[in-house]
Amino acid sequence: SKSLDDKYIFFESASKETSEVWYLSTEEEDGSSAPPEMSCVAPRRNKVLYEVEHGHGQWFIWTNVDESPNMKLMTSPAKSDSADEWSLLEDAAGVPIFDGSLAKSLDDVTVLNTHIVMQGREGGIPRVWTFDLDSKIAKRLEFDEAAYDVGLLAHYEADTESIAVTYDSMVTPPSSIEISLDDDDTTQRTVLKSKVVPGYDKELYGCDRMEVLSRDGKTQIPISVVYRKDTMEKVKTGELKVPVHLYGYGSYGSCCEADFSSTRLPLLDRGMIYVIAHIRGGGEMGRQWYEEPNGGKYLCKKNTFSDFVDVARFLIEDRQWTSPDMMSCEGRSAGGLLIGAAINEAPELFRVAILGVPFVDVACTMTDSTIPLTSGEWVEWGNPNEEKYHDYMMGYSPMNNVKTGKTYPACWLTGGLHDPRVAYWEPAKFTAALRHANPENEHPICMKLDLSAGHFSASDRYKYYRELAYDFSFLLDQLKLA
Fold this sequence. Notes:
With 482 residues, the chain is of the alpha+beta class. It contains nine helices and 23 strands. Helix content is 20%, strand content 29%. The chain is globular, with a radius of gyration of 24 Å.
């Protein structure tokens, strides 16, 4: 990538746990005809991640150096091997802007002529901050809704008096907003474009942000909820219980945002409540939500599955919005692993489960290094050729933990014949295992294999809608909402 001031080109080599950045100057040295040489910002160190931007004659570096749980924002002179000179960027009061603590996380930095714009998370929600380089005052952009998704749009010029962000929530369609950097309270905003959703009336829908106490008695799991207001009104008055659809992912530090999706509307309009569980293994609460010792990776991966089950119990037993015969769940890829582990742990909680291209044969796949992506995934799941990781994986791998004598929910599994990430035989094996373990199970276990698809199913928009219609048809049929 090129720095926004066009002075350097950066080359990054990185894994999930370590990184190294090299740079090349775009300016010719005085009196030299030799081509510029690449130099390293800081040599690779184990468990140290860092990224770099340039501006105002210095490096702006965000890094987890010194084992900080989240990324710090640091600066140093713009030179090679600068690690010893990294120092925290502070505001006018001498307080670090990002100190790497648990309070907030930092994901990206954009250096402009007058401001630095930072993207990260606080309270489990995406945030954008601005930092005035003259006054040294940092501000967070504020929005009215309790939960939302916001991010900085692409900027190609450092000399600007405004920034543009994209914003949406579970009830607000996406819009692009221009925000002035000169305004003292950044309330001078112009909506550049909003997505038009035909037939959609925002006033009919509501969304909430809640927290669920996990079984460890100390971890609060955020959840985002969207519903029709008339449905929730009936639930809150105790008039009836309604179907609830619970979605989760919880791997790779990836975040499930409280964003807008028009494809949820057919479910909401049929009286369902849609819930996203922001479980450990994702990055919603910062890197500590993902990393050991208390996140959802390596030897604490089971936290991901227990969090999901705890959320389901909360919705059924505490909130009493629904009952097990009306509760459904869904996840794709590593989220399919989540669903497989959840229905193994608590099959009695769910009536329907949707497992899209599910990674359910964990121990077997991670043992086979001839599969192209396996060795690179050891930094996520652990290497099962080591006994401690093998034994731990065997304790949660869905294929190896199917229970007998249990009533499993109706399951809809999908796969792609050309999937290079989750091979088609994984959902096929799990389908067979579920059927074989409980041949008297009254609920159907179905698999749909797309002979022309890869991991991400249809790239064609209309084919994607057709594929989604299969999922929803199965779901609604089993819940008797079709």
